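Sample pair:
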Amino acid sequence: MSVILPGATIGILGGGQLGRMTALAARSMGYRVHVLDPDAECAAAAVADRCVTAPFDDTDAARDLARQCDVITLEIEQIATAVIDAAGTHAPARPGAHVVGVVQDRARQKQWLERHGFPLGAYRAVNSASDIADAVRAFGECFVKSCRGGYDGRSQVLVKEADAAGDAWRALGERPAVAERALSLAAELSVMVARRPGGAGGGETRVFPIALNHHERQVLSWSVLPAPLPRPVLQQATQIGRGIAEQLALEGLLAVELFLTASGDLFVNELAPRPHNSFHSTERACVTSQFEQLTRAVCDLPLGDTSVVRPAAIVNVFGDLWTGDAKPPPPFDAALTDPVVRLHLYGKKGARAGRKMGHISAIGGSAWDALAIARAAAKRIGVSTEDVPAQVRELGA
C-alpha cells in the first residue's frame, strides 16, 4: 500500500521558497517535514521539523534524511540522481531519478521530447564555438543555453551573428549547451500536471488551468490564471502537459513551459518536476493549491480539485527593493491597502538584485482585473512591471 497518511514525515530535497511553501501546506495537513539544503538558513528551515545541511550531491546526507522520512520529494531539479537513488533506498522518491535525469540536462530533455513526439522549436546540441556558429548560420538568431544549471535567464546567451559564437561559448563556461532558434512569440504559458501512483486504474492525474506568463529580462515578472487565451490553445497545451507527465510515469508535479508563436504553433520550452513560480496563483485562484497537490500526489492521497474559484494574478518581488545605500525597508503596508491583495515573503536572509524574495497576489473578476490589482499593489512598494503586450490582449479578445 503506497498511501502515506498524515502524521508521517515528508522529506524535501531543497529548502528554497518552493520547499518552504510545500512544507507549510504539508504541515497544515498534519505531516512533519524534513529538508536537505546546502544552506542551514534556507527559506524552508524556519518551517521544517529538521534541516539536514549538505550539498545536493551528498548521498550519505540523502540517506540520513530519508531514514527518518516516509516519502521523499524535491523542490529543485538540480539534485544529483545518485542522491535521489540513495534516498530511495529508505523511502519512495517521488518524482524518481528517471524523471529528474531527463529534465536536468537540456539536451537530454529535448531529445526525450523529440523522441516521444512532443512539439519543439528547431534546436541543436552544441559542444564548441564552431557548433554555435553553425547553428546561427542554419537558424538565424539563437538562444544558447547551458545543458546543466541555470534558471531565471542565467546560463543563456542570445547570439545574433556567427561571429559572436566564441564570446557566447566563453560566457557559458565552455560547457555543453543547446542552441535554440529564436522564435517570434505571441505569448508564453505553462501547464501544471499532478500525478500520483494510485487512484482508479493507477496514475490518477489532474491538470491545473493554464497560466499566462510575462518575462522581463528573461525572468518571470507576472503571471495570471486562468490564461485568457483561445480555447483550442488551452486544450492543446493541456494535452501536451498531460501526455508528457504520463510518458514520464511522473509521481508528483510537472510544470511544462510552452511558447505560443505568432503563427499559432505551440512548442515546449522546458520542464520542471516540482512546484513552479507561474502557479503560485493557485493559492488564491484554485480549490487546491499546487503545494497541497504536491503533498497529496507524493503521499498517494486522492488529488484535489483544480478548478478556478476566482481568477488570480501574481507579481514577483525581487531583492532590488532592499539593496542600495541606506535604502529603507519596502513599504509593504502600501501594497495591502487593497483588501484583495496578499503579500508572500519567502524568509530569505540575503537580498540581492534579481533574487526572488517574494510575490504579491490578487484576485479579481477576470484575469486582467486581478493582474491590474496586483500590478498596482506592486507599484505602490516600488515594483514596476511591463503592461500586457498588445498581441497577448488580442489573443484573448
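The longest helix spans residues 231-247.
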